[in-house]
């Protein structure tokens, strides 16, 4: 939970102020006031071209009167919520470094909008995010108060946006926390307990199917992948009814592989540790459910999380095995490392029971997606142009970018099997598309979109270089989905 208080205030010189500047280098009234207080240092730095206002540019001015962080925002016409989120993260990170209890954020705009407030609140929180569960010294300085400078203090509609921004930031941090946890401390059953805990004080209902129930229901995919592991699998269902009674729900599905060794088709050991992040899809879905409930969105939403490890052992499923899924379709397993699609097949089939308005799944599904799109953009595939377009727009608005890959019939043919309905790998090419083609066999005609977040769910080097994203899990998909749901 965040504990930094955010409040609106009119301008006054304080211990630490951050202020944004566009590349036209015009100073807003507040920035001019600051400039005057610190002996025209801002003007002279601009005059000497030591600061040009480009985005990603920032400079800290330490003066006897006050510390001032100038943050470049680039072209005024290209201002976005994401740039403000980034700027606010820069401000809170600097406040932390300076160990100031309170700091002010001033943005060169005549009027703060609700969108901006949300983004600024999110940025300031996410910038301070730190996964320190395993540090023996957990003491971490956090600024206590953030003053968001506005012209008129009495705007109650903006106050609501502070809370909204916090709720979304909390959900993103929840997703990061779950993804960042090592697999031995985040087993399928531990995840189920967490889902129940999240539901305990919210309008959410959580149901967990254990191994017996999965056997009864015929979840052959989830049980097949789980058969090599000592950890029992489970299927976590979270339901939220904020919409009209009987209104069809939007179903989110998240790949929740708590660790992916590859199974019998074992992965090389280099970087295998990163496969603790293979539960990121599920982490994001659980966090979406938390945010949807806290925001009290007027929609019905269901979150489905098939959870298991993928391990090699004497009892593991093997290449050549044939699996029967919840919807009675069969697949020949030719590579046990293509396990995500195998557990998602059961979950997507189960989603049909809701007669959903649409299905959206998140999965760290293919290495091929990282090759195709790198770490800045998630892969997007599906059967419904309207959802695809809306998700694309949400991506542009939030900065969690997505790009569509073609899911045409040619690719669906590539996964036909000689002995079963389909096989779990295609050929050498188009790995992200053949994986989605496999999933498409389990969604029937319901509107569906699949997001391959293999490249975006975590970052090794900070790509995409944003101040509110650090090495480790990113929590990608939460911001995107909440924006999508609010703009339905
Ligand atoms: N979890 C991996 C995908 C992955 C790999 C995500 C690297 C992020 C980084 C997935 O289960 C997997 O192993 N997929 C295989 C599929 C292949 C065997 C058809 C892959 O991408 O190599
Ligand atoms: Zn795998
Ligand atoms: Zn995997």
Report on this structure.
This protein has helices at 29-37, 41-47, 81-98, 114-127, 156-180, 188-200, 211-217, 220-226, 280-295, 340-351, 367-373, 385-398, 409-413, 431-440, 478-486; strands at 5-9, 16-21, 58-62, 67-72, 102-106, 145-149, 205-209, 234-241, 250-254, 256-260, 300-310, 322-324, 330-332, 358-363, 378-382, 402-404, 422-423, 448-452, 458-459, 472-473. α10 (340-351) packs parallel to α14. It is elongated and about 80 Å long. The longest helix is centred in the middle third of the chain and has 25 residues, at 156-180. The protein folds into 2 domains: 5-151, 3-Layer(aba) Sandwich (Leucine Aminopeptidase, subunit E, domain 1), CATH 3.40.220.10; 172-486, Zn peptidases (Aminopeptidase, 3-Layer(aba) Sandwich), CATH 3.40.630.10. Strands 7, 8, 9, 10, 11, 14, 15, 16 and 18 form a 9-stranded mixed beta sheet that branches. A 6-stranded mixed beta sheet has the order 1-6-5-2-4-3, with helices on both faces. Strands 12-13-17 form a 3-stranded mixed beta sheet. It is α/β, with parallel strands linked by helices and 488 residues long. Bound molecules: ligand BES and zinc ion (ZN) (2 copies). Ligand BES binds next to α11.
């Amino acid at each position: 939970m965040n504990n930094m208080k955010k409040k609106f205030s009119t301008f006054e010189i304080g211990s630490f102020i951050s202020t944004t500047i566009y590349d036209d280098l015009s100073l807003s009234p507040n920035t001019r006031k600051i400039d005057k207080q610190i002996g025209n240092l801002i003007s002279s730095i601009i005059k000497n071209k030591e600061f040009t206002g480009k985005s990603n540019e920032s400079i800290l001015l330490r003066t006897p009167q006050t510390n001032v962080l100038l943050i470049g925002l680039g072209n005024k016409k290209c201002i976005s919520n994401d740039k403000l989120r980034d700027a606010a993260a820069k401000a809170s990170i600097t406040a932390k470094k300076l160990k100031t209890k309170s700091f002010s954020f001033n943005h060169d705009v005549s009027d703060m909008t609700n969108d901006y407030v949300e983004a600024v609140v999110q940025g300031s929180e996410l910038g301070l995010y730190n996964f320190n569960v395993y540090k023996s010294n957990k003491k971490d300085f956090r600024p206590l108060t953030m003053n968001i400078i506005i012209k008129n203090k009495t705007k109650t509609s903006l106050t609501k946006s502070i809370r909204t921004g916090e709720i979304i930031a909390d959900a993103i941090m929840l997703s990061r926390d779950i993804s960042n946890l090592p697999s031995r401390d985040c087993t399928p059953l531990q995840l189920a307990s967490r889902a129940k805990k999240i539901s305990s004080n919210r309008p959410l209902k959580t149901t967990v199917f254990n191994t017996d129930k999965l056997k009864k229901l015929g979840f052959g995919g989830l049980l097949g992948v789980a058969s090599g592991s000592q950890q029992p699998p489970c299927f976590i269902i979270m339901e939220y009814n904020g919409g009209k009674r009987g209104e069809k729900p939007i179903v989110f599905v998240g790949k929740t592989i708590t660790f992916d060794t590859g199974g019998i088709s074992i992965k090389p050991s280099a970087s295998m540790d990163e496969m603790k992040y293979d539960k990121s899809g599920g982490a994001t879905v659980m966090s979406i459910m938390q945010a949807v409930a806290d925001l009290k969105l007027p929609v019905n939403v269901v979150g489905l999380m098939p959870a298991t490890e993928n391990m090699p052992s004497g009892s593991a499923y093997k290449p050549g095995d044939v699996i029967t899924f919840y919807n009675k379709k069969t697949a020949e397993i030719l590579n046990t490392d293509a396990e995500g699609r195998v557990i998602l097949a059961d979950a997507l089939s189960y989603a049909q029971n809701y007669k959903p308005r649409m299905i959206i799944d998140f999965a760290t599904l293919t290495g091929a997606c990282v090759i195709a799109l790198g770490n800045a953009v998630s892969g997007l595939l599906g059967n419904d142009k309207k959802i695809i377009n809306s998700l694309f727009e949400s991506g542009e608005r939030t900065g969690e970018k997505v790009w569509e890959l073609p899911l045409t019939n040619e690719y669906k043919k590539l996964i036909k099997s000689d002995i079963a309905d389909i096989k779990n790998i295609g050929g050498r090419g188009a790995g992200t598309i053949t994986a989605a083609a496999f999933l498409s066999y389990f969604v029937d005609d319901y509107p569906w979109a699949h997001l391959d977040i293999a490249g975006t769910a975590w970052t090794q080097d900070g790509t995409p270089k944003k101040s509110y994203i650090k090495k480790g899990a990113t929590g990608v998909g939460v911001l995107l989905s909440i924006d999508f749901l609010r703009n339905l």
